[in-house]
Amino acid sequence: MAGYLAQQQGGPDGASIGAYLLHRAKPHLPPWLAWAGTGVAGALGNWRWADSAAAGVGLTLASVALTGVTWWAGKATSQQRRLHSAITVAAGSAWLTAACLAGPAAHPVGDLYLMGGPALALSWNIRMVLRQNTDATGEGTDKGLLEKVGLARAQLGAAKVEPNRVTASLAVEAGEQTNDDVTKSLGRIASALDLPTSAVRYNPDPSSSRRGELVIVPEDMLAEVVEWEGPSNLGGSIAEPLVIGRYDDGAPLVMWLPGDPEAGRNSTHGLIAGGTGSGKGDTAQNLLTEILSRRDVIVWLSDPKAFQDFRPLLPGLDWAAEGGTPTEVLVAAVEAAIPARTRWLGAHGYRQWVPEAAEQQTSGKHTCRPDGRPCGCPGMPFLVAWFEEAANTLRRMGDDAFTGIAQEARSAGVSLIVSLQRPSYDQMSTSTRASLPSVIALGCDPRDEGFVLPDEVLAAGAHPGAWGNRRPGYCYVVSPGIPEDRYASPGRTCRFTHRAVPVMELLAQWAQRNGATADPVTAGAASSVAGRAYTGRTATGTEQPAPLHAVKDEEDDAMADNRLLVDPEDADIDPEAELPDAEQGDDTPIFGQETGRKPSPEEARRLFAQALEEFEQEGRMIVGPVDFKNWCERNNLSRPWVSAQLKEAYQEGRLEATNQTGRWRIIPALTAA
User: What range(s) does the FtsK domain occupy (predicted)?
Assistant: First the structure.
């Protein structure tokens, strides 16, 4: 070492080289020193015990004992090192015994010393060199890493290296540690590797409490923003995977909605959850555009935000409803469609919806005819009931508004999609949350992680609370059909910008012309509840209000024709006729008071039936006393009178009770027809 320091300080070259070689040779000298020491010990022993039989017995026993102790002491090391050590000690002690009794130079004791001794010493030198090379390639580093994080005795298996993904089997010490210890160490492993926490995951083996797979993704491929350019499978079936983004290792991020009996995959409902600014809108657009691009699905959408994100897609929707009463009607329509669709599927021999159910039924295997002949019934497309900003609907209708749908719809070929920021138990009932097996979890408050992801996924390393709203579009997807070891893998959905709007409009036009239309069973169930509020997707898309200049031109034409601009309901009034006599209550036509004009029973029924018809024509199928405020003021009637008429209409079957107190659903007048 002194010579090495002299070299650094500018000493003589010969001394420096010699010191360097001595420094490099030092780790390899112990086996050779042991060889030389054994030779000296053999010569001294022969001088002392050459003619002693007792010494021969003692040396033999000592040789056996020393070999046994070496084997016993090596149980904590690897099997190779244990065996190598025992062979070396046995050979050395046996030679020493022979040298003490026969002499170190006697034949063949001397030859064995000169040939076998260097061979054993070189074997230890070779072992040391190989161990150093192995450490340089990673094995020693892995052991050091595991030791740092508290898993020193864990055994790492062979690593499987994929593009931007390394997977290695891991087994912790039996009886001392479990998979939970590995899970708790993931943060320290990520710190040791200088990676984000989400880049290190652990997938426990379901059949073992101490074995699993450690997954490391060294490069975050999600940092680059990818803009949406169009659907992945235009004209495909809704039963095929929906591509909504990519994983951090570059693999496509997909999910399925319908089930597949061949693959053993169940149909599913979905929850999209994420805080403000987490990219929930873009994620919803990714999923909805994928759905609309398929040929055998229809979409019913409720959006209290007046379709702020989805307006370019409106022509492709089968039914679009804003928040409030229209959404209440849509919920009731879905509830009515479920048993009707289930009945149709069962009658045609389908245990669950499959793509064949969307085609015309021309097979004797799927027929509703009792004689087994093909029935030719129109097919039934898959139905997606989407509730955007569902917290608004839940506040209005109660936290169990979707419970019945979530529990019963999957067998009817209906998938419920609920999107909201925080699916906590004070907003959504536990029964509804338990019936939403699929979830797209975006960035959120760390305290909300348990509301959106299962505990086992969080334990495997998923941490959406680490993103918050700082990484829009980052998400975890848990859904049937996705391998469980992917649940804790972060993904990212595509970004929707202003450049995506023309493509979305083209997609809506394609769906309008080529997409599925509601089958008679689903449309009939919806119409029986919603009446004229449900029209289905039309060939011309959504109706637009007339331009202002057209209204002005019509008024000018009326003035030119000397026509009076009066309301149609006032056209038959004679302006010269005497006013009718005052009736009881005409002096206080104030809404909400007990007093008011009291019509005859016959007139009351006629007026109330007329009011229900007006609401039905407007598509307002869920009503209560508050909805009759303007109507009461117009007809000089009181609120208590309206409440009494509502109860009477319910008893006559014109109204149906809802799950909200004081709210009634209008049964369309033409339902029976």
Answer: 250-451
pLDDT higher than 90, residue 548: no
| pLDDT for residue 661 | 67
In the chain, the number of structural domains is 4
Same domain for 448 and 366, yes or no, is: yes
The helix (run of H) or strand (run of E) holding residue 204 is: strand 200-204
Per-residue H/E/C for 178-203: CHHHHHHCHHHHHHHHCCCHHHEEEE
Candidates 245, 342, 338, 253; CA nearest to 300 is 338
- Residues 103-154 have pLDDT tens digits of 888 888 878 888 888 888 888 888 777 766 554 444 445 556 777 777 877 8
* Among 437, 448, 443, residue whose Cα is nearest residue 478: 437
Q: Helical H runs in 103-159?
A: 109-137, 139-148
* pLDDT tens digits along 20-71: 677 777 787 888 888 888 888 888 888 888 878 788 888 888 888 888 888 8
Once rounded to an integer, what is the mean pLDDT over residues 560-566? 42
Q: 234 or 401, which is more confident?
A: 234
Helix axis angle for 186-193 and 139-148, nearest 10°, is: 130
Strand order in the sheet with 622-623: 622-623, 664-666, 655-657
438-442 and 252-255 beta bridge pairing: unpaired
The predicted pLDDT at position 156 comes to 81
Q: Count other Cβ atoms within 10 Å, centred on residue 647.
A: 12
Name the binding residues.
274-281
- 222 in a structural domain: no
Same domain flag for 524 and 589: no
The mean-pLDDT minimum among 132-146, 175-189, 428-442 falls in 132-146
At residue 285, the 3 state secondary structure works out as: helix
Mean of pLDDT values over 589-612: 66
What mean pLDDT do residues 447-461 have? 89
Judgement on whether residues 359 and 398 belong to the same structural domain of the protein: yes
Token pair, residue 460, equals 């495997």
Read off the pLDDT of residues 254-263 as tens digits, 9 standing for 90 and up: 999 999 999 8
Residues 640 and 599 in one domain: yes
Residue 66: which residues within 8 A CB-CB, separation 6 or more?
89, 93
* Phi (first) and psi of residue 42, to 5 degrees: -65, -40
Instruction: Report yes or no: 531 and 668 within 8 Å, Cβ to Cβ.
Output: yes
Phi then psi for residue 209, to 5 deg, are -95, 5
Report the C-alpha gap between 533 and 60 in whole angstroms: 103
Is residue 292 located within the same domain as residue 185? no
Is 355:576 a contact under the CB 8 Å cutoff?
A: no
CATH of the domain at 657: 1.10.10
Sheet with 200-204, side-by-side order of all strands: 155-162, 165-171, 211-216, 200-204
Helix axis angle for 29-49 and 109-137, nearest 10°, is 160
E strand or H helix that includes residue 30: helix 29-49
Strands 319-321, 155-162: parallel, antiparallel or unpaired by DSSP? unpaired
Q: To the nearest whole number, what is the mean pLDDT of the chain?
A: 81
> Quick check: 505 pLDDT over 90?
yes
Closest C-alpha among 418, 380, 401 to residue 301: 418
* Spatial separation of the C-alpha atoms in residues 640 and 382, rounded to whole Å: 45
The Cβ of residue 219 has, within 10 Å, a number of other Cβ atoms equal to: 14
One domain, residues 161 and 121? no
